[in-house]
Design a protein that fits this description.
The complex is a heterodimer of chains A (about 400) and B (about 260).
Chain A lengths: L6 H28 L4 H9 L18 H14 L5 H16 L2 H12 L5 E4 L15 E5 L2 E12 L6 E7 L9 E7 L5 E3 L13 E12 L3 E2 L5 H37 L1 E2 L2 E2 L4 H29 L6 H26 L10 H11 L6 H19 L6
Parallel strand pairs in A: 1-4
Antiparallel strand pairs in A: 2-3, 3-7, 4-5, 5-8, 6-7, 9-10
Chain B lengths: L1 E5 L2 E3 L20 E3 L1 H17 L2 E7 L5 H10 L3 E5 L9 H15 L4 E5 L10 H9 L3 E12 L2 E7 L4 E7 L2 E5 L11 H9 L3 E3 L39 H14 L4
Classes of the chains: A alpha+beta (about 400), B alpha/beta (about 260).
């Protein structure tokens, strides 16, 4: 569908698609098998300015927004849903600085991130604090002009690879959610270390590690916003980043559809290309319709974010929920479309199915998204003060 | 270091059509690209600037739409672009093209290194680069596969040969034609694309570059193309069988019969 992108967005799509097709697609299966992140691609994304699309011009970016980022992530994810995370997860780690950082923090960190010189990562999840972010145990103790961080963050995308970590830690445990604060921690700070890379089902070209804080001493200049605002920073970050996860899901799903069309035209059974069979045609038509509907929702949400809508938390959750559920269904169907070959690792669709699964889980499980949406519905209803009429 | 890169816009397809009346290329309806060999010239020009400073100016001669090729070069990192476009240039052969480009380069005046691709994929002559250096009366080094060293007024390069390479030193200014072994062209950047979109491209006519009207375009081209044809495919030979003596006797007999020996 024609979505009437502006000039910059058209260029983003063109360049990201070129990199995806020419540079990522040929190595995607190998990177998945070896569970390796291809740094030469990260370098290329940096040189092409793709890391800068959502960062303001004042900090070395191209001054685009959420939609610009979504377009880039979607195109890259068509080739590999893991490699695209070097960009998408960096954006997740960068949003706290963009949304809550002061001028000095933005000037210090954003230009290098925009150039792709430094990757970023967001650290909130812990072993006992997943959907229940209130269970965070990592602490940040004030000590003069410094904070001392202790704790272990789990399943951190870009963990160990990134150089800039935005971290949610408790500055006052007695205050519950209001006792959390957000910090910037740089790789190389004494006491900061990483576990071995996690062995995952999918997105295996993206590195996931524990990020371990042992008496990590950081200057108070690295506090993002005010003390006690950590959860507000985190929730604002997710509202901005969830369309990016949705875009990753779109790319994975669209890649699977493209695979099916190409394969269906080549693969012959009963002396005919299998795409000529109505059973498969109907399947493909449903897959494409679902993906297009998801895309329309994701882009509309991203445009609401960029247009300065007052509230988009509900829509952002809807976009992530819908696009990731669609991606899961579509990739399962794609494996079915390929038949026995779909189950083989040398064909691309089983990887897409494994990659799709994470989009239903991270940055808030889809159950959490539904809770977010429902909470907004209840709040909106209460605001209208309407009584049910029977 | 001021670097000039000469490029050509060529038809994307290798299925080139020829106008039977003028015996020149039919460009209408064919997707155009920057000549692939020129992409290496552009890349090398940008790399020299990145290392030694200065600027890269890209030049082409062609119809108005050749501007797209220049914008692509700018999106990769070239600083300025010049388009030679004038009906009077139409139908130029390699001699007239070299002359026109050399006149434009004289107008630019300030340059240290001119870089061209080794040849264009449509005409395949490999003559325009050397032609420009001849008109400008500066040294040329063709088939450059590596630039070893550049100092003020000095360059050392490796020139690809069939057996290996020759190391060649030259004074500056110099004209180089480059082969694909020299580098791997980069992809365009978004900032480059945005710059390319808004850059003012200088458009020069034959009058602007002070060209002698008798030396440009079809009338100024000494090359006369009488006919263009696809050579017939070689028919399969005949394999002679038997022992050595029989075969040699038969072969020599037949060669004599056909007055070949």
């Amino acid at each position: 569908m024609e979505y009437f992108f502006n000039e910059q967005q058209k260029y983003i799509k063109e360049i990201a698609a070129k990199i995806a097709k020419e540079k990522i697609a040929p190595i995607a299966i190998e990177c998945d098998e070896k569970e390796e992140m291809p740094w030469e691609i990260v370098k290329l994304l940096g040189e092409s300015d793709l890391f800068s699309v959502y960062i303001p011009e004042a900090y070395g970016g191209l001054g685009g927004g959420c939609l610009d980022l979504c377009i880039a992530v979607e195109e890259l994810s068509k080739a590999c849903g893991g490699i695209s995370l070097s960009l998408a997860a960096t954006a997740l780690g960068t949003y706290p600085i963009l949304l809550s950082g002061n001028e000095e923090q933005k000037k210090k960190f954003l230009p290098d991130i925009a150039r792709g010189k430094r990757l970023a990562a967001f650290c909130i999840t812990e072993a006992g604090a997943g959907s229940d972010a209130g269970g965070i145990k990592t602490t940040a103790r004030k000590d003069g002009d410094y904070y001392i961080l202790n704790g272990v963050k789990q399943w951190i995308t870009n963990g160990g690879e990134a150089e800039v970590y935005t971290v949610i830690a408790m500055t006052d445990k007695t205050k519950g959610a209001r006792g959390a604060s957000a910090f910037i921690v740089e790789k190389g700070t004494p006491g900061l270390s990483f576990s071995q890379k996690e062995k995952k089902m999918g997105i295996r070209a993206s590195m996931t590690r524990e990020v371990i804080f042992e008496d990590v001493k950081i200057h108070k200049d690295n506090l993002l916003g005010k003390e006690g605002r950590g959860f507000i920073v985190a929730m604002g970050t997710f509202d901005h980043s969830r369309p990016g996860v949705a875009a990753q899901a779109l790319g994975i799903a669209q890649g699977a559809i493209d695979d099916c069309v190409a394969y269906g035209r080549e693969r012959h059974q009963f002396d005919k290309p299998i795409i000529s069979f109505q059973g498969l045609q109907f399947m493909l038509a449903d897959m494409a319709t679902q993906v297009e509907a998801a895309r329309a929702l994701v882009y509309a949400t991203a445009r609401a974010v960029d247009g300065g809508a007052q509230s988009f938390a509900k829509e952002s959750a809807m976009a992530k929920l819908f696009a990731s559920d669609v991606a899961m269904q579509v990739t399962v169907d794609a494996v079915q479309f390929f038949g026995g070959y779909g189950y083989m690792r040398e064909y691309p669709v089983e990887k897409r199915m494994r990659d799709a699964k994470i989009t239903q889980i991270y940055e808030g499980t889809n159950q959490i998204q539904r809770s977010v949406i429902a909470a907004h519905l209840i709040k909106e209803g209460a605001a209208r003060k309407e009584t049910a009429k029977v | 270091m001021n670097i000039l890169v000469c490029i050509k816009q060529v038809p994307e397809t290798t299925d080139v059509r020829i106008n039977p009346e003028t015996n020149t290329l039919v460009r209408d309806g064919v997707q155009s690209i920057v000549n692939p060999f020129d992409m290496y010239a552009i890349e090398e020009g940008i790399r020299i600037r990145e290392k030694h400073g200065g600027k890269v100016t890209v030049i082409t001669m062609g119809p108005p739409q050749a501007e797209n090729a220049l914008r692509e070069a700018v999106s990769l990192g070239c600083d300025e672009a010049v388009l030679l476009t004038d009906r009077a240039f139409a139908g130029a052969d390699t001699w007239a093209t070299s002359y026109a480009l050399s006149m434009a380069i004289r107008k630019i005046k300030d340059f240290d290194i001119i870089i061209c691709g080794k040849q264009a994929i449509d005409g395949d002559t490999a003559q325009v680069g050397p032609g420009i250096s001849t008109f400008l009366d500066i040294p040329q080094i063709t088939y450059v596969k590596k630039i070893e060293d550049i100092k003020p007024g000095f360059i050392r390069v490796e020139r690809l040969t069939e057996e290996g390479f020759t190391a060649i030193e030259s004074s500056l200014p110099v004209l180089l034609t480059v082969v694909k072994e020299i580098n791997e062209p980069r992809l365009p950047s978004l900032k480059g694309k945005m710059k390319a979109k808004s850059l003012q491209i200088a458009k020069w006519t034959a009058v602007d570059i002070g060209a002698n009207p008798e030396k440009i375009g079809l009338p100024g081209s000494p090359t006369i193309v009488n006919r263009i044809f696809t050579p017939p495919k070689k028919a399969g030979g005949r394999i002679m069988k038997g022992d050595a003596v029989q075969i040699v006797t038969e072969l020599v007999g037949e060669l004599r019969e056909k007055h070949i020996v």
